[in-house]
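ok trying this again, last paste got cut off
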Amino acid sequence: MIGGLNPDFLAPRAPIPHQGTTDIDLLFALGFDRVADVPDFSWVDAALDAGGFESTNGWRWDALLGDARIRLEFLCDVWDHIDDIVPLPGSGRAVASKIAGPAAALHAPMERRLTISSGVRADMSDAPETLTLRFANLGGYLLAKSAAARSRMLSKDKYDLMYVILYNDEGPRGAALAVARQLAATEESSDATEIRRVMERYLDPAGLWAGVFADTMIVTGDTASEDQLRADAAEGARAFLNGLENA
């Protein structure tokens, strides 16, 4: 689990609950680091057909399961391919989108036990009372979210990233240490440059990124002033960058 429920677990010190989305992001590892080592993905076409998935770009697929919309995205970190689209040999329909972040999110996940609601169990008689899922740890989440913030440029990514950096148990410097540990463990030191570039965009309290964070916090119930929240984002980014530099 990368997004969805994760910020509330990772940032228990927040003054208000995280304003999440209605989706739940699950990450499944297909297992290749280089295009030269990509296995045979001929099975993907049959699986997409069986699931009723349709796509317009080859890497993002949509289907319906009852009243729920299921979105499947093929994303990858690869070292030997410069194009944005990565082929999946053997598949005639699917490709992957190259994006930094997913590999770091997979390393050393945290297991959390979730309670299945009575409503779900009423609809599914064989559903268990609890379910254990692996969640991205703090460093993995921040690396994946910073990659999303840089590539997708959505407001929610700017908010999510700063929310977790400010309100995790150890604060911005603790977040920086978690990122440094994750990078060292996954041998992806180049990603440090990318997360630095993202965090630098919060440094101006009058800037867009700090403003998106402040506006979202206010809309979701924070009673602090906009100026204070903008300053919090800028100072949080500064502390994070200093922590990363000294990690």
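PB: full thing came through this time. The radius of gyration is 19 Å.
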